[in-house]
């Protein structure tokens, strides 16, 4: 199992029956591949659909049905078209149960930076700030380090996405939960040790007596 | 997927003293069967947020007659003399809100905004006790969001995902209220199979709706 | 011609091609009876329709199609159903070209009071405050006096509907325009003299050299 | 009643330096024929308010390539490298706004509200220079309304009253933008007779629309 698959499989376990979920582009969108069949979940794409149905299979394309990355998608039976005001009303109003997003940095406060690298990458925040500020649960899914450089840090040096603590950080090495006391190491990846996680993390981690392995 | 909820079970969900957002304009677009079930059950002390209290014997008027309403937040109560009498007798507290402000306050509650900045009500008794915010040299009243414990919604069609559409002037407060309560109970004229309402025709996505009421068979 | 017919006929002359118009309940709603056939106008009812088509004729009733007074109405071809947020968005956002409302008092500033008589009549403002604050043109249509008591006064003693100058006051005796300088007597009713208007008005009136009669 | 407007006549309405609200999300729901007509005409200096600048060669991307855009107010420009290059070269000014804030600012402009009170952007660079308003003990950013000189709208159907409906994810910014500009120009896939769009299916009432573009015959 490669890093991305580990992460997507572990995030999928957080998705519960009846939820409305928004998946970011890239790694987060892989989560759909690992959902149990008996979970009845609706996916939202912030550009305007509740009931996203995955990438369009050949012959099922509709130029007016895309996801937030602009890719052609399908809709599930019972889907609803919504305009951007309603879409972000769902996000900001607490109707979105979970968002899964990528991350550049997360810090000891649980704050996320994921939209900009000053002087290098200024694509715009898109819907990320509303998602992190508004979703009931915010799950950061990312590889643990960027080319060996830690991404879970004492305090974000990149501009924040929101002044709000995220719910959970899932990497290929660990599941980490931000709490009032700080970042708690909840689970280990299939091949990671506590020492390796600590080594790859500059943020202070709270390490319980037993840290189980991800039950992938 | 949702199964239709029995009227009495839906009514039983609503505790004494709940804040109810109730759709309708002079009882048009008000869930009458749900109202009847509440009258039947007799638990009250409700704060009702609605455009109006309809007429005696219709819609919210029936809750007023049954003595189940403690407080009303509405834009108009003039066509229900009973609401007026109970207000004067001190039995019902009434907060009057301009109609356009009321719907925006409920919307703000539903879409997670901190309030409404409007010029409606400036220089009138509506202004009293409220924050004034200046934007680009203009004065605006800051009106606070409203949310309910329950929204009681009347739709034209519901499907078994909870998707709703609405008919003509029976839209009124319903689609906005369906976003602004902890629990949303929808009464439709008819329940149709999933997929029978075109995605473009859905005005309330089913994920907002907690219960659809059983139909009249 | 009785007073109400004079008023309705005169207000109808203000309605221009292409307008979106909201008529209040009662006297204002009579305006539709006197519109020229060649005026293409859409009426809005604030409870949720653009394209109101007058009272429902027998056999044309629909329980879900009413006006702001709750009366059964029809819709014209090309009508649109709107929810209350959109309806008041049209009103507040400057999309409503004209509203015609009744009045209890109008004063020298052009301010209107029409929703409440403290201790006597407290029905609620309904949509009146939004209409007066938001419509491009606000026309007050009312009989000139209340049982002989002037309604056009130096300063409203009743609570205001909005802190905004109305566009025009139309009574059976006069057309009066509020301006920066004050209330200007623009036209006389079919049977009124300048002296009678002044007599029936406690507000100061600016009286031009010639005051034409309404061209009804 | 409206008659269909020729593309070149519609483009000619728009002067140098106009503020354009343009519907679409990565060019889905963008009025492409209207964009082409603007490129053809070559008058520019526009401030474009839109979710994004699409891709090179699509939608708003074509205006960027043609050098007709002076300023962009958008939530995302990351998929159009040309916009980024012109931004870095100082040829285009870019104001980045969170997507949910952007749509609400346009809505506020369209429905006559004084601004938007949101927690999105608090504690981030988006906060800089903006009023903070406290409501019920919570802090909110005050984001100001946006209006355009023109809104360029893409619809599924238009009728000859100007009523519009929209398709699937091609709704996006269109219905809200249609309320927030002095002049609204709508491009539909098809123009249908008055009455052919059910009142409950109309998402933009025709009174908001000034021009419907001629179809492809």
Automatic annotation (TrEMBL), chains A, C:
The keyword Glycoprotein does not apply. The keyword Protein biosynthesis does not apply. Keywords: Transferase. SUPFAM superfamilies: NagB/RpiA/CoA transferase-like. SMART domains: CoA_trans. One of its GO terms (molecular function) is CoA-transferase activity. Belongs to the 3-oxoacid CoA-transferase subunit B family. This is Acetate CoA/acetoacetate CoA-transferase beta subunit. It comes from Cohaesibacter marisflavi.
Automatic annotation (TrEMBL), chains B, D:
It holds the Pfam family CoA_trans. The keyword Transferase applies. The keyword Transmembrane does not apply. Transmembrane segments: none annotated. InterPro entries: 3-oxoacid_CoA-transf_A, CoA_trans_fam_I, NagB/RpiA_transferase-like. GO terms for molecular function: CoA-transferase activity. Keywords: Transferase. This is Acetate CoA/acetoacetate CoA-transferase alpha subunit. It comes from Cohaesibacter marisflavi.
């Amino acid at each position: 199992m490669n890093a991305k698959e580990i992460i997507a499989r572990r995030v999928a376990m957080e998705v519960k029956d009846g939820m409305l979920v928004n998946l970011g582009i890239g790694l987060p969108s892989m989560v759909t591949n690992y959902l149990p069949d008996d979970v009845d979940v609706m996916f939202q794409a912030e550009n305007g659909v509740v009931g996203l149905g995955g990438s369009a299979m050949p012959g099922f394309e509709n130029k007016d049905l895309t996801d937030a990355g602009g890719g052609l998608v399908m809709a599930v039976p019972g889907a609803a078209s919504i305009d951007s005001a309603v879409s972000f009303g769902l996000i900001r109003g607490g109707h979105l149960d979970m968002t899964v997003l990528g991350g550049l940095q997360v810090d000891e406060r649980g704050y996320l930076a994921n939209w900009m690298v000053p002087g290098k990458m200024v694509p715009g925040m898109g819907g990320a700030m509303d998602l992190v500020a508004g979703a009931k649960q915010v799950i950061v899914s990312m590889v643990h380090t960027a080319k060996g450089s830690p991404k879970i840090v004492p305090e974000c040096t990149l501009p924040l996405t929101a002044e709000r603590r995220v719910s959970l950080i899932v990497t290929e090495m660990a599941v980490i939960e931000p709490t009032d006391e700080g970042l708690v190491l909840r689970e280990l990846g299939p091949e990671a040790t506590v020492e390796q996680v600590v080594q790859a993390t500059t943020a202070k981690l709270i390490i319980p007596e037993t840290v189980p392995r991800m039950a992938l | 997927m949702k199964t239709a909820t029995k009227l009495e079970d839906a009514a039983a969900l609503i505790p004494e003293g709940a804040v109810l957002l109730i759709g309708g304009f002079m009882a048009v677009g008000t869930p009458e069967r749900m109202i009847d079930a509440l009258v039947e059950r007799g638990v009250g002390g409700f704060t009702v947020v609605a455009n109006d209290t309809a007429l005696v014997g219709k819609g919210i008027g029936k809750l007023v007659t049954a003595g189940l309403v403690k407080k009303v937040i509405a834009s108009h109560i003039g066509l229900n003399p009973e609401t007026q009498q109970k207000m004067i007798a001190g039995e019902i507290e009434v907060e009057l809100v301009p109609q356009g402000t009321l719907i925006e306050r409920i919307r703000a509650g539903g879409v997670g905004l901190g309030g409404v900045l409007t010029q409606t009500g400036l220089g009138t008794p509506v202004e009293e006790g409220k924050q004034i915010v200046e934007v680009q040299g203009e004065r605006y009243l800051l009106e606070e969001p409203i949310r309910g414990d329950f929204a009681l919604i009347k739709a034209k069609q519901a499907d078994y995902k909870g998707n709703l559409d609405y008919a003509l002037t029976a839209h009124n407060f319903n689609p906005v209220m369906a976003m602004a309560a902890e629990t949303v109970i929808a009464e439709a004229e008819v329940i149709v199979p999933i997929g029978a309402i075109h995605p473009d025709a859905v005005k309330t996505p089913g994920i907002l709706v907690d219960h659809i009421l059983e139909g009249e068979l």
